[in-house]
Design goal:
The structure is a single chain. The chain is α+β, with helices and mostly antiparallel strands and 457 residues long. It has 2 domains: 316 residues, Phosphatase 2c, domain 1, CATH 3.60.40.10; 81 residues, no CATH class. 27% of the residues lie in helices and 24% in strands. The protein has 10 helices and 18 strands. The strands form 4 sheets. Strands 2, 3, 4, 5, 6, 9 and 13 form a 7-stranded antiparallel β-sheet that branches. Strands 8-7-10-11-1-14 form a 6-stranded antiparallel β-sheet. A 3-stranded antiparallel β-sheet has the order 16-17-18. Helix 1 packs antiparallel against helix 2 and helix 1 runs antiparallel to helix 8. The radius of gyration is 33 Å and the shape is elongated. About 9% of the residues have low confidence. InterPro entries: PPM-type-like_dom_sf, PPM-type_phosphatase-like_dom. Its EC number is 3.1.3.16.
Length: 457
Amino acid sequence: MTLVLHYAARSDRGLVRSNNQDSVYAGPRLLALADGMGGHAAGEVASKVVIAALAPLDDDEPSDDLLGQLRGAVLAGNGAIAELVANDPDLEGMGTTLTAVLFAGSKLGLVHIGDSRAYLVRGGELTQITHDDTFVQSLIDEGRITEEEAANHPQRSLLLHALTGHEVEPSLAIREARAGDRYLLCSDGLTGPVSTETMAEALRIPDPQQCADRMIELALKGGGPDNVTVIIADVVDVEFGDDAPIVGGAAGNGDEHPQPDSSAARASAVTMPRPQPQRFEPTSPPAERPRKRRWLRSLLVTCGVLIVLAAIALVGRWWVLNQYYIGANRADEVVIYQGVQGSMLGVSLNWQVETSCPADSAQDCTPIKVTDLQEAQRPDVRNGITEVNGLQEAREAMRRLRMTALLPECQQPEAPTPPQQPPQQPPGQPQPPESTPDATPLQTEEQKPGVTCRMVS
C-alpha cells in the first residue's frame, strides 16, 4: 500500500483587508499555513519568512523524526523573524500563526501555534485536531464562557502564543494516516464567518480544488472580514500523487481571479494551477530536479522577502513619522506625541517630541498640566487629540488649548494688616481705648486649585 496526498490550496485577501498577510504552501509531503499579524505589511513578511523556513522539508528525505524536523524548521523561521526585527526595530510586533503537517507514508507530524486550525474528516466525522492558543479558548477551557459566547467575545482575536521572534515552543503531535482521510488547514478568516456545520457540509465535495473554492466562497459570503486561506488534502492509496507544490497568499505570485456567482467577485484570490499527477519511484535514488527546484524556490522566496522588507522600511517609517497627536505624559503634562497611540506586544508606538512650551516660546512659558484645563477638555487630552495633520497643526491645537481651555489663575490671598499699637500715656493719665483691627472681608468665592483655578509658580 502506498499512501500519497492529493491536495489543493486557495488564499483570498477578503472583502475588508487591503492586502493578504496569509501565506500557504502545499506539496507532496508538506502542508503549511501561516496567518501574519502586524500593521504596514509586517505580518505579510512574518508569514512569508516562516513558510520559507518550512518549504525545504517538502524535498527532504522522509525521516523517522518528523517532529524534530518540524520543530527545527519552526525555530529557524522564528529566529529569522528575530533577526529581521533586530535589523529594523520598526518591525517589532510582527508575527504569525502556523499550522503545518509533514507527511511520511502511514504517519504524519503536526505542528501548531496560534489560532489557525487543522481539521480531520475520518469516517464522515469532522474533528478539530489543533487547540487554539487564544485568550477566549483559555476561558472556554476553564469553563468561564461557552463556545457560543466566545464567538462574540471582544477579545476573541487575542493570541497567547505566536511566532514573533521571541522564545516560544509550538505544539507538536504524531498522527496516524489512513486512506480516505481528508485534512483541512485554514486561517481564522474561514472559521470566523463560517460555522463548523457549514464547513462539514462543504467538505463532502469530493474534488479537493472544488472544495477549497467552496470554502473561500462561503467565507466571502459571510462578509470576508479577514484574509482567508484553506488547504484541502486527501490521503489516497495509489501509486502516484500530486508532485508540484502550491504556493499562495503573501508567499505566492499575487495573481487575482474573481469568483463568479457570489460576493467573492468583488475580491481577489490567489489560486495556483492544479498540479499534474507524477509517478513516484520510491526505490530509485533521489533525482536532481527536486534539488534544483528547492534551490530556485529558496532563492526566489529570499529575494521576495528582501524586496518586501525594503518597501516596508521606507513606507512604514514615513507613515509613522508623519503621525502626531496631543496627549498627557506620565507627569500629567499636556504634550505633543509623534507616532500612533497604543503599543504592540509591550512596545510603545509613540514618543514625546514637544511640550506645551516649544523651544521658540517665551522664557516665562509655563507647561500646561491636565489639571490646568477646564473639566470639559481633560477627557479629550487624556484620550488623545488625534485630529491633527502634522506637527504644525498639533502646535496650533496646543495654542488653542492655551488660549481658550485654561482655568483662571488662582489669586494669592492678601496678608492681613497688623493692628496698630496705641501711643503710651504718661503714668496717671487714662489710656485710650484699644483699637480693633478692621475685619477682612470674606472671599466671595472659594478658590479650589485644579477645579476653579490653576496654580502658577
